[in-house]
Amino acid sequence: MASPVSVYNSNALDTHISSSSRESLKMELLADVSLLPGEERIIDKETIYICPFSGAVKGKVLITNYRLYFKSLDPDVALTLDVPLGAIGRVEKMGGASSRGENSYGLDITCKDMRNLRFALKQEGHSRRDIFELIFKYAFPLSHGLPLFAYVTQEKYGENGWDIYKPIEEFRRQGLPNNKWRITFINKNYELCDTYPTVLAVPFKSKEEDLRRVAAFRSRGRIPVLSWIHRENQAVIVRCSQPLVGMSGKRNKDDERYLDVIREANDTPKLTIFDARPSVNAVANKATGGGYEGDEYQNAELVFLDIQNIHVMRESLKKLKDIVYPNVEDSHWLSSLESTHWLEHVKLVLSGAIQVADKVSSGQSVVVHCSDGWDRTAQLTSLAMLMLDSHYRTLRGIQVLIEKEWISFGHKFASRIGHGDKNHADQDRSPIFVQFIDCVWQMTKQFPTAFEFNERLLLTILDNLYSCCFGTFLYNCESARDQHEVRLKTVSLWSLVNSKTEMSEMYLNPFYTPESGRVLYPVASMRHLELWVTYYIRWNPRIRQQQQSPVEQRYKELLALRDEYLKKLEELQLSDSSPSSRLANTPNSSSSTSSTPPQQYTQLQTPL
Hints:
PH-like_dom_sf; cytoplasm; 37% helix; PH-domain like; 7-stranded antiparallel β-sheet; Myotubularin; 13% strand; lipid metabolism; cell projection
């Protein structure tokens, strides 16, 4: 795609442009927009973008079946917007036919990615009706019987991202199966649990009938199954949903015995059950048939982690958006940030994951659950695994972690994000996955050399959480993805990330130093946590200019310089060892047999 100013040139734009030239410019304004395969232009229209940073900007907006694209007409204001329609959460009409005041009639668009857009249109002849209806139709295709864009685009990549995660291979990497844990295919048709994957790791001693009886006592049939095993001490992270205890305090001997079998697998004296919820919420869940493990679970201890539910997290992020967009109020910044409680929630999630990782590292097995085991549970297991296992800190490892703990284990992406759905007030919407990625970012800040991937990867993941350009985050669980043939009919986000060497390098951390056995314990203290400015406030142009760290930029320049010198060195080495150069340096053929071999060069290392 051309740069925002590339369609203009200094000769063509002076204050005396003729009206015909102006019309020509308007025609050409959106001609340079590079469309994706399968993307089609729907409508373009002259409008005024009410920019919160530059004021009213005249320009043209293009609506396709994938994006909203705006470009300014004024050569002095080189402004473009390129917004995937999937990132739009709400479209509203602003003002009416009788509205007075400049730019009071148009559209208000609320986005899911921490920004809002406002466009003013002419009041005559219902000029906004067509564009409103078209944005509404293509931003919320599922509400209009249309396919998501991921099913329309035909983008081709060099690598099939769907191959990044293979459950059996990942279990083998962890050393499974072994004499304590086995792989089961009891859920191959999603009959045991329709929100679980088909391949599960369970205790070796458990029989298939045991699993079915345990499923009957766990919410949504989400039985305790292995997520990760420690290679040395054999302690495990097991995930599940809450037990169906109810107000009457029901018991299930099969469930109690099953948890004890998990404990016995590595002779843990006491199994720790981490319930992500505040204890008061867990007690309240009894009224709806849920609950928690009581004293009847022998050789087990229950720990509540006080992490709030999806509704609290949704409201917290809304408050955060209110204080960062469009403008940041400097005078009361710290108190305003504190009032959102966002960093406090991040702290509690990280703190819970640290406790899980610490138990496992010390040789004690743990069970993790919340209510249904697909929100806070996924946050805790995946973050603990990131702390314990350096494989997940690599570029491909983080992809496996997300595929495994979030996608295959049924985090409800469709419900939490609302892909293609017009019901913006749906109470199931919640930024649980965004919060997880925020926690990952916090860890990369505290351990800058421990992660192979960089911030750009995290931003790309979150942008495509909403974009609907890839099938990766579509639908609520594996069974729904199978039903909608996601792997057959859409492209994985990891195809983009892993497709080209130069593309992959965009996501690499130049400071990365592999350390295979190191456990990371981030400091989950408000003094050490930061607001992720380059995500939450990135639409502010002042912030955007500061995104690249000067140290990182200089380091990349040094790496490029090193690569250039190494290339020249290789060329010299090749020319020195070529037949013509050897003949030129050899006085006679008889002495050539005793000549020394070409000099070997060792690779240079550029010091930091």
